[in-house]
Predict the 3D structure of the following.
Amino acid sequence: MVKKRLPYGISDFVRLRRDDMYYVDKTMYLPLLEEENSYLSLLRPRRFGKSLLLSMMTAYYDVDMKDRFHDLFGDLWIGQHPTPLANSYLVLRFDFSKVGGDSEDLESRFNDYCSRELDSYVRKYKKFYEEDVVQDVLLSKSAEDKLNTITINSSRLELRLYLIIDEYDNFTNDVLAKRGKEAFRELTHAEGFYRRIFKLFKGPIERIFLTGISPVTLDDLTSGYNIDWDISHLEEFNSLLGFEGREVRQIIQHFKEHGAIKGEADSIIADMKPWYDNYCFSHGIHGRETVYNSDMVLYYMRSMLRNGQPPVDMVDKNIKTDISKLKALVNLDRGIQRRERESVIERIATQGWIDMRLKTSFPAKDLLKPDNFQSLIYYYGMLSIGAPDRVLTRMVIPNECVRQQYWSFLVAMFQDLHPFTINPLLEAYGPMICQGDWKMALTIIGRMYKELSALRDLIGGEYKVQGFCKALLGVCDYALLCPELELNYGYSDFVMIPLRSHFPEAIHAYVLEIKYVGTKASDAEVKSAYADAKKQIEDYCSDSRLLKAVAGCTLHGIALIFKGHEMLDPQLILEKKI
């Protein structure tokens, strides 16, 4: 078998197969999808492979692709197990991410985009319609009129239509974030143009498949549809998008066998797993197979193929744009509700989890309600289903990639309240992790915290300190920050493990223990806090798992005592070469 090309950034299934790119086979899910309702919706975070899935489905069901079935699917699972519905539909496909959401002429742009797609549809399938029907569609100026002509005549001619919509909520969510709730409501309610065209999807179209991120628009648009559309949380579709662990290993093995990358598969997976794995979209999957973010895996592999080593920045810059969208939703209004939303982000970032009722549908007018906003964070891919119970679900930060986005959010929030530059701290992390010169970085953190002491509405006491330090320590590029790591039957505040696979010069690891005492604490109380921190650090730094993780490094144990808003001089408890 020849070495295949890596399909990073490729969402065109036909091109991927034509150019012999590596494809993680998801075709075995097609019979399962056919067994479900004829109208389906699937919600997943961005960059999980939704567009490629829809491109594959288009090629499989398109009657016009029948002659290419063997070339496209012959060596895939479905090629050996085709269903009766293969190549039996006229496929109408929309990608609403191509319609901008921040323009005042949105209705015109939406009409123009849909019109182009509908014109392309009748040109492609003109042999199935009479010439006057094709001309009626092409001459119509309104997308609604075009669609109405197509559906009416398809029904008359007994043609089978499959409607596929990618990013159905993309531009409407942009409207919500950039122009507010009222503009969104005008778009999706009453006689809003977006709602009008969705009404035309009922009835004449045999099968519909929608993908998106959040259930906000779906709830507003589909009052006439059944909630059984949504397959997002069904156990059998947990791995429909993203990569399972075995699929990641197969990708690595393929390129290893062709000499394209070096290193053991186990070590490569160990490097990727804490950053890209642990997404769970079904309660029934808890404790079993989770999935990797497929975009991030391919991003990592691209660096391995190009440079022979992992990417310096483990987080693809393209995925960082999601945090700006979430921030826009946090800032939809001012006052108490905004503060409550910020507190939700703080709490998740500080403790790494939140217990909540996961909502599967809610209208835009209720978006700002606490339960709905918490669920929206999950739909944006910034929480994963953890341990469920009868009432609440423990939602957890899935991985380090997402955790860094929370820390970036907190830093931005602090900067909004009291502007400061983080560059001096970023520069100080190099000497801290590479030369063992930790005083400058920790001093900067202490000074920043003192300057931001006016933030009295944040979580108070030790938890406030924890959240602030976690955000600022988390932006260190040279080390993996592990908060509340279990060591010797206790939980350390912070462990910083050098990313040596990325920075060979990073050879200094840290165990940081934080203690908080009140502004009026006595010298004896401060001394007692130092003593407690010292004992904990000594216990943590003898943990065999930690020693294995930082082998070849110098391990520093440091106590940080905060007295009110002021950090006292950091105390080095131990320093030893591992």
